[in-house]
Amino acid sequence: MNSDIAIKVTNLKKYYPEHKAVNGISFEVGKGEIFALLGPNGAGKTTTVEILEGHRGRTSGEVSVLGYDPKLNAPEFRESIGIVLQETNLDPYLKVEEIMTQFAGFYKNPRNISELISITGLDSFRNYRYRKLSGGQKRRLDVAIGLIGDPELLFLDEPTTGFDPSARRDAWDMISELKNLGKTILLTTHYMEEAEVLADRFALMNNGLIGKIGTMDELRNSKNSTIKFDYNGNLDMIPENIREHCSITNKKITIQTSMPTQTLSTLTLWALNDNIDLQNLSVQAQSLEEIFLESIKESKTP
User: Fold this and answer.
1) What digits encode the pLDDT tens for the residues 150-164?
2) Architecture of domain 5-219
3) Which residues pair with 225 in a beta bridge?
4) Is the entire prediction scored with pTM above 0.85?
């Protein structure tokens, strides 16, 4: 396998008698990138991640994680990955540093505990008992535990569920710092904004299949951007090649275009030549959420 590839999945299938949870997916994750696996409940993403972690067998297909086949569950494989689950049950009366020391005992060469506490922003809480931590602080501790074996690859499941907006953005900063440390991260989240902020690439999954995969620019390729402006003049004065793509509501013009730069150039040139004021002009590319919903809709189309 290419030394720059952390995860390589080829035609992965996981079948149950009642349904096909994963139905022949293929993708790669490069070392040092944050890769978001996204999909609605029942899409197959949890099953896929559990196979990658070595916690679930597969029906067929090839899987390589850091050069290991997860189903063999080699000790070297287990030490090279870290897993941050959506929920953890820790002793409520242990202090943060005590919990870290306890988990460090499971590894031959654990990372420095004080360093991890600092990286995850828990310096001020190292002597707090677990039950006294806020939800965001507990999540930071979960990440610190996931990093204690100094893994190359971190599986991060719904890292900010239940967080308020401020705590969520603090968590995003922490996750971005993990990438700066050279970690590869496979992220699952229901928050599209979170994925768009954090991830380098995305796989959109539904009904056991991956419908779209790529960077934001690749997912947006050939997809419509939206140009909006207010216009009080004669609609017939708008250039015909733009007017045919316009929709008008209460003198608000909306243009859907797959060539936003060219369309905007034509629009602004017309406005300059005819001394037109394009009030409240805005250009907006498709968001990840819009692409995600479109992908789900397409996967349901016979």
Assistant:
1) 999 999 998 888 788
2) 3-Layer(aba) Sandwich (3.40)
3) 257
4) no
